[in-house]
Design brief:
Chain B: Its EC number is 5.4.99.25. The structure holds two protein chains of two kinds. By secondary structure, chain A is of the alpha+beta class. Helix content of chain A is 34%, strand content 25%. The termini of chain A are far apart. The chains are: A alpha+beta, B alpha+beta.
Amino acid sequence: MSDDMVDRTRKLEETTVSNSLHEEEEERPVREKAEYEEEELHKLLVPDVSQLPPTPPSAVETNFVSYFAPDFMKPGNDQYVYRHANGLCVVGLASTHLAFKDKGGITAVDFNVGKSDRSSMKVTGKRKRNAQHFESNTALCKVCTGDDSYVVRCCVKGSLLEVNDRLIKQPELLNSSADREGYIAIIMPKPADWLKVKTSLLSLEEFKILRELC
Amino acid sequence: MSNDTEPAQVSSVAAESHAGACDAEMQLLEGAVRSLPYHVVKELLSVGVCARCVLRLFGIEEHIYCHSSFSQSMLGSILEEETSFKSEVEFQFCSVCLGVLQFSYCDDGEETVVKKESAKDMALSIAELVKQEGHQIDGFSLEVSVPPLILENESSLLSHMKKKYESEPWFQERLLSKCHSVKDVLKFAITKPLETLLGVKASASSFRIRLTYTHKRASKKVQNSVERNQECKRRKTGTENALHNVNDESVIADKDCSGYSTIETNSVTGIFSNGVQDQETSEHFESPIEKVSEPCHLVYVCCRTHIYLCGRYLKYSRNVSQTRWIIDEERMGEASVEEIIGSNILPICQGDNYKFHAAGREDIDVRMLGSGRPFLLEIQNARQVPSELIVKEMESKINGLENKSVGVKNLKVVGSQGWALMHEGEAEKQKQYCALVWISRPLEDEDMQTISLLNDMKILQRTPIRVLHRRSPLEREKIIHWMKIERIAGSSQYFLLHLCTQAGTYIKEFVHGDLGRTQPSVGSILGCRAEILQLDVTDVKMDCFVTE
């Protein structure tokens, strides 16, 4: 009750002070309050450096589980499958793929394989009903080096959502970052199909041991 | 003068109400009755029309119906004085209004027939319900819906009367004026007593009292008469009676209407305008209407329409989702903003349920800081509309919770315009963020320059892989309005990136590039690999729900 009275008398006092002084008085607490809030916010934003790891896990490491298909359909054809928690699979060439051993690395990528040009299909809609269904051994593209060419396959049975068409104009992406920007395609397998193929894939650890990468 | 010959019912009314008012009321009533053509009234009474229906068919003014008890025998006895008129004393349900205006109905729960003596008694049971529910109100709005059968009865009776009495002198004056609807008369009758009992006025209020009358006997002519008189949505329900129609808009959710039909109309119009219809209806019945043996079924409910509380929320935790998030019966995160705010406000408003709406959303691992995000909390059937003081208490309570994961600002009650305010220009509104970024090489001063020089930069984002399973594969153009790098003391490869972007921009993907599917990205701009460790929303640039 008494607080109420104090507030009311304070308000009365304020109205009797002259205009210019009044404005100043009003502005100062507002400005101070804003500055105070900024400071408080900033304190929350700045991290504790001692808690930061020297090298943080990458986005791929954080968001995907990596699997590998060594010698898929052909010796030396090592491919990876990154599986996201939402079920989507990103497929690409593992660093141990034969193509990288050729002098000059990869020079061209062609998606026109099999019956259609994989880079021309357009998937639309939430349900992605018009996506093409491929088997695990269906060809996705052909990568060419100076000496040779290699067929890259799906590895996972499912709907093809997207191919990395940037590789057409920038095949060097495969040489610099085959495990990231050089991915080949994104496939959406049905849960049952994934469970089946999973048994034939290796985990990162198993793959490292196999290829003596440790 | 006429007190000697008044029947017992009137004297009981006299006992209840103020003597002077009663006399004046009675005089008005008697005057009105005596102004009616006796032979017509006689005929109406003989086919089982109740006293109030008789009056309203002749368009007698509203205030007459406020007279609490007015029965057929009363009507008869007033007329008895004038003519040698012997009325049937035996009570029967009105053949037009089916007992509605006789305050008689079949009780919902017990299935027993209830006959209230007066409008006041009827108002009493309704007021009981309101008090039982514990509603705190400052007004009420009364809504009544009656079965289509009543309207049909009325229209066939009116057309019969037209045919029979068209030539008589009083007809032009009387019947051509609009007769009052059953709904209107019922409302006139019980509104005043309700106002007295509840202590508040009837007004356009968010607190609704709804009386729904239904009758077992399905109407046989709904298709014809009703279709001409109104435009409402309808759907057919397959029941034993093939012409059963149910009106979507007026049916109360919890009532099972499989055996009944009910309808809501605005006015009884066009009865005389369509000559063809008149012929149909009067040919159909031999006597104008059939007598009924049972009254309508009545359900009365009271509830408050949704109230809204608006404000801005802050989320300090990286393990709290915005809304309840449950996958395979397991909750994701330890709590949700929705539940923390809703569960602390609902009990105070004593509502049935709440719904949470926000202007946009952030991931579970992203904090919402700064000015906060605008939200709207919808409370269903609140028993108490919180005052300003109570709202302030609610805000303090939430901000003072032991688990300081959620904060609330500028909480207040708002009308339905809150919706529009919140969604106004949502897509254009800019958002400001602070991201903790790591790059694969040490940060140079040049980098800070490069970044801060980019203004209103366009980027192209393909649907991020993490949402690609449920969103359309599209390429979306977004704008990064400005960016600023803040160095972090003690680290050469970590820094804070402050940025302001167009609504709908995926920030995480803008930093790490999403395997090159967002171009440009922070990494591509700086020519190295960039990863994002933490993200905070620092400002949702919207004008709504701020302090005045």
